[in-house]
């Protein structure tokens, strides 16, 4: 089955700096890669996702890049703000249709943005 | 529209008991997946239901089971509870053709 590794496990940055979180996956059949943000005591919320036919996707201060050959994808957050502090999870999923998919999650990164 | 609703929010059970958790999806969503979240193991896939049929199952013992009703609401059941079953149980729902998974707020299960 799929295996997703995520690094680093903790990341502290100064407000305004950039943060990068990296994930690798093992199953070449995976073609959907979402990133979730989970604040303490709250549900995971999707912040951005990318499909295997796209190399990069941006949404304001957040971007995700995908390298299918190397089987890794990364989350980039620019101009970090204190409210970006949370646990971030990457995930991978094989091709499926009409379903919520079977997501395999990375172990999470605790991001702390220092004021 | 209303989000994914999980009930109850908190549960305390004794070892050996069984428990049933409920997930009501966003209106129109027909797929429901369940995940277990623990500090040690992270987020792990339990199973997925679509149109009342289990389509995928994760690597969990048979004590973990689920079902989905005709209105797409889903329940999961854990029998013979063990201390290690203490976790946050999350469900995620999706509509047909839309791959984004919307999570519920979870049910915090504590086994004592």
Short description:
The complex is a heterodimer of chains A (115) and B (112). With 115 residues, chain A is mainly β. Chain A has no helices and 11 strands.
State the secondary-structure class of chain B: mainly beta
Which range best describes the helical content of chain A: under 10%, 10-25%, 25-40%, 40-55%, 55-70% or over 70%? under 10%
Q: What is the count of β-strands of chain B?
A: 11
Give the distance, in angstroms, between the N- and C-terminal Cα atoms of chain A: 41 Å
Residues in β-strands, percent of chain A = over 45%
What is the helix content of chain B?
A: under 10%
> In sequence order, what are the helices and strands of chain B, one letter per element?
EEEEEEEEEEE
Spans where pLDDT lies below 50 across 5 or more residues of chain B: none
Description:
The complex is a heterodimer of chains A (115) and B (112). With 115 residues, chain A is mainly β. Chain A has strands at residues 4-7, 10-14, 19-25, 30-38, 45-51, 56-59, 62-67, 72-77, 86-94, 104-105, 109-114. In chain A, the strands form two sheets. In chain A, strands 2, 4, 5, 9, 10 and 11 form a six-stranded mixed β-sheet that branches. A five-stranded antiparallel β-sheet of chain A has the order 1-3-8-7-6, with no helix packed on it. Chain A is globular. Helices cover 0% and strands 54% of the residues of chain B. Chain B is an all-beta fold. Chain A binds chain B through residues 1, 32, 34, 36, 42-46, 49, 89, 91, 93, 96-108, and chain B through 30-33, 35, 42-45, 48, 50, 55-56, 58-59, 90, 92-94, 96-97, 99-106.
